[in-house]
Amino acid sequence: MTLAVSVPAKINLWLEVIRKREDGYHDISSLMLPISVFDRISIDIHPGDGPISITCDSPEIPCDDRNLAWRAADLYMKKSRKKAGMNIHLEKHIPWGAGLGGGSSDAAGVLAGLNSFFEKDVSAGDLETMALSLGADVPFFLHSRPALATGIGENLQFAEAPRYPLLLVKPPVNVPTGWVYQSLKLTKGLAQIKLKSFNEHPWQFRDLIENDLESVTVPRYPVIAEIKNWLLEQGALAASMSGSGPTVFGIFKTGQAAQDAAIIAKMNWPDSWVRAAEVL
After folding, report:
1. What is the Cα 160 distance to its own chain's centre?
2. pLDDT at 94
């Protein structure tokens, strides 16, 4: 039997780094929003105690145990003690190393897909624990709903969000997440942006848009700031880097405005990945 799963990317409307923990991770406060850019996952499951294999249409994605989707399948089968082999095929539309959560989303999609196939043999709580063991963003993608993520990203407070029209531009650089956090010098100590402010005034971006990781990425990759300024010149109401970057998103008043800007972006930034989308 073949399962077909679609999994979304995400943006961080804001991302505040609160403190560095003794375990080396950082506590954050971030509003994470799923968006309409999807990877497609096909899982071909066959009976018996067979191997797990993975293929991908993007050559830069590893097709072995370094791949989060493979690790998610391996973990699920071991924890559930089910007997089956499978091939996982990833059709990538979320760019790799973009700050959009593509690897985490793929992992969550495999966990949820297998649990559905095996009739929810693993409880929701155990699935969350498995997701967190794979990565801090993976629990968010089990739900793919707007949520305030705190702790290292595992504590989720769900929210309602407008379907913001977006234009995403990823320059042709990749930013290692580990390097960004290791290079971060200052932390907040206390979250400044409150979910209450977002709920009351979701279009007042002056008080909502911030990404503390830009203090590391922009000096190393000034093209990020250039794209932010360009998006604002094109009529974006606000612009920011997503996650650890380097993708920059602009929020537009209408979907048509975002699509019109995308046409210009493809000419002005020909080496960049460009996509008009919206918050789900």
Report:
1. 18
2. 98
CATH level 3 topology of 161-278: Alpha-Beta Plaits (3.30.70)
Residue 143: closest CA among 158, 130, 129, 160: 158
Per-residue pLDDT at 132: 95
Q: How far is CA 236 from CA 53, 206, 214, 248, in A?
A: 43, 13, 19, 12
| The CATH fold of domain 2-157 | Ribosomal Protein S5; domain 2 (3.30.230)
Low-confidence ranges of the chain (pLDDT < 70): none
Each residue's pLDDT tens digit, 251-260? 999 999 999 9
Instruction: Please report the pLDDT score of residue 187 as a whole number.
Output: 82
What residues does each domain of the chain span?
Answer: 2-157, 161-278
- Phi, psi torsion values for 196, nearest 5 degrees: -60, -40
pTM over cut 0.70:
yes
- What angle (nearest 5°) sits at the alpha carbon of residue 163, between those of residues 158 and 168? 105
Contact 211, 50 (CB under 8 A): no
Catalytic residues: 10, 137
